[in-house]
Amino acid sequence: MPKDTADLASRDVTVLGLGAMGSAIARNYLERGYRTTVWNRTASRAESLVEAGATATATAAEAVAASPLVVICLLDSAAVDEVLAAVEPAVKGKVLVNVTSGSAGQARANERWARAHGAEYLDGKIMGDPPYVGTERVLFPFSGARGAFEAHERTLRELGSVAYHGEDAGLAAVEFMAQVALAYELLIGYLHVLKLVRAEGVDVVGFTERFAGSLPAFPALLGSMGQAVKSRSYGPDLGSLDVQAALMDDLIAHRESLGVESVRMREVKALMDRRIADGHGDQGFSSLFEVLGGGREA
Ligand code: NAP
Known about the structure:
Residues 168-292 form the NADPH-dependent reductive aminase-like C-terminal domain. There is one protein chain. The chain is of the alpha/beta class. The chain folds into 2 domains: 3-169, Rossmann fold; 203-291, N-(1-d-carboxylethyl)-l-norvaline Dehydrogenase, domain 2 (Orthogonal Bundle). It contains 13 helices and 8 strands. The radius of gyration is 24 Å and the shape is elongated. The protein starts with a helix and ends in a 21-residue tail after the last helix. Residues 17-22, 40-42, 45, 73-76, 79, 82-83, 100-101, 126, 129-130 line the site of NADP nicotinamide-adenine-dinucleotide phosphate.
């Protein structure tokens, strides 16, 4: 594909679904000078976009017919299935970009459906809030048809901070699920620690600021932990497990002395004890990966 393919892409785009996110996407394209066609099940939601220059259609199929690139942003996968069934006769030759939240399996099923109907499919996920669409504050992982991504890359990059994860249409959803799960695990740990901090009479805002100041150390730590898991070669990161396990006893005792729940800390301690019992007390925290249950090798 020639390097300047993106410049050849059309400046016509269709957006199906004008909820909070779909409207932000359509408005972003309008503001950047794209000829923007929109459709929404409840037609009145298109009015302000039409005032701003969009073309609204009565049916989703008409909207699909209007542009080579169709961005789908609906509530959930059930809504996507319903709308895809309605637009089936119009999708041949189109690039469908579905940014509706959903699983990797749903993305792969959509990709098969699109291919069977002569369309190309890109799956995207959205990490960020509608007011920030069009800025680097919103992350859009994409996966699916590489040629379609490259042909429309410039248009897709108008949405925010865009990354392409590969031809397997499910990979954007995998990235989204992993990032969101990790954020929740981190944030519930943070809230738990605030219980502890407040119980000790320390200001939670001041503590938060100090912890935020230590975050720049995390990329290097995470990078070395990721390498250790990949190579299954575990150095003593954060110290040896023998030493860390002793510290865990103090952390658990501290929580319990203040009446703060210690379930997750006990879980970590149990994992450390198992790893040590297996003869790996000289290894570090990343080696706990080996005793976490579940998962399979891809
Ligand atoms: P929303 O404001 O609730 O809008 C939902 C949209 O889906 C509306 O356009 C609605 O149409 C349409 N819809 C629902 N069921 C439908 C059906 N059966 N047939 C046709 N259209 C249907 O939701 P949103 O905030 O725009 O979110 C859209 C997607 O973006 C979701 O997958 C969400 O998880 C994702 N997302 C949202 C945010 C956010 O902060 N808002 C952030 C990241 C990701 P009507 O107007 O007719 O009801």
